[in-house]
């Protein structure tokens, strides 16, 4: 308790929106800054969770045009200029404390989503090892750990790995983004299992021999900070399902597109 008090005195919590010291003490965000965030409202896309204008539409334009391999997903806020600034501070200014607010808000708003998937495993979208070394952390991994603590779901940060450092996605279209991410992700070697020739594939079946690869989860919830075109989530989903995962969902802080 004393250590926490000293830390708060030396490093007071800052607001994820205005970056000033949060008041009142103990809060995760300035009360006046909450309305500056555009929380996703209903109706929303049944596939990616993006906000829709018409309550007659079931899917956003992106999900109408493109086949998605993942089941569905949810996001907390729209990726507008306020959100962009906040996410940039997390990644490039080491403001990991901002994720405390976002994780709590996601868990509170989408408690039903996690409750209905109580056997799911939270898997953060990985970053390339070179980027992890330069940044010092993976923001998706930090978010996943916090969500795991709040929801009680297991977190597996080793299941997915980034195998290729890709070109920046910002200037690429949706199809180009997906091509850019081809072969960029893989299931970690420790979770891969190859059946012997002529033997049935017994992945995820009870009674597997000792010493074989760890059991793959049946359901995965991918965790990421930003969902734009869905290319990253799609690429991860394809890899997971090819390895034997049956259902893949996603949760992100921000989402673009929709309407």
UniProtKB/TrEMBL annotation:
SUPFAM superfamilies, sorted: PRTase-like
Domain Double zinc ribbon: 7-64
Any Pfam family: DZR_2
CDD domains documented for this protein: PRTases_typeI (cd06223)
Protein family (similarity comment): Belongs to the ComF/GntX family.
Protein name: ComF family protein
């Amino acid at each position: 308790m004393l250590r926490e008090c000293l830390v708060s005195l030396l490093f007071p919590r800052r607001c994820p929106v205005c970056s000033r010291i949060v008041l009142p003490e103990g809060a995760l965000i300035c009360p006046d800054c909450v309305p500056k965030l555009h929380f996703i409202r209903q109706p929303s896309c049944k596939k990616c969770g993006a906000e829709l204008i018409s309550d007659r539409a079931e899917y956003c334009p992106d999900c109408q045009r493109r086949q998605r391999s993942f089941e569905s997903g949810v996001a907390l806020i729209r990726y507008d200029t306020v959100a962009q600034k906040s996410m940039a501070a997390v990644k490039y200014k080491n403001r990991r404390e901002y994720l405390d607010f976002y994780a709590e808000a996601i868990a509170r708003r989408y408690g039903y989503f996690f409750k209905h998937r109580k056997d799911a495993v939270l898997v953060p979208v990985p970053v390339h090892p070179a980027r992890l070394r330069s940044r010092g952390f993976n923001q998706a991994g930090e978010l996943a750990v916090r969500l795991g603590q709040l929801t009680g779901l297991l977190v597996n940060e080793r299941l997915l790995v980034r195998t290729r450092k890709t070109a920046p996605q910002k200037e690429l279209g949706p199809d180009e983004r997906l091509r850019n991410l081809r072969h960029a992700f893989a299931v970690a070697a420790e979770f891969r299992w190859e059946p012997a020739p002529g033997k049935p594939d017994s992945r995820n079946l009870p009674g597997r021999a000792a010493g074989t690869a760890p059991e793959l989860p049946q359901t995965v919830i991918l965790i990421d900070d930003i969902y734009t075109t869905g290319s990253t989530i799609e690429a991860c989903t394809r890899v997971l399902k090819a390895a034997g995962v049956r259902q893949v969902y996603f949760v992100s802080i921000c989402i673009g597109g929709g309407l």
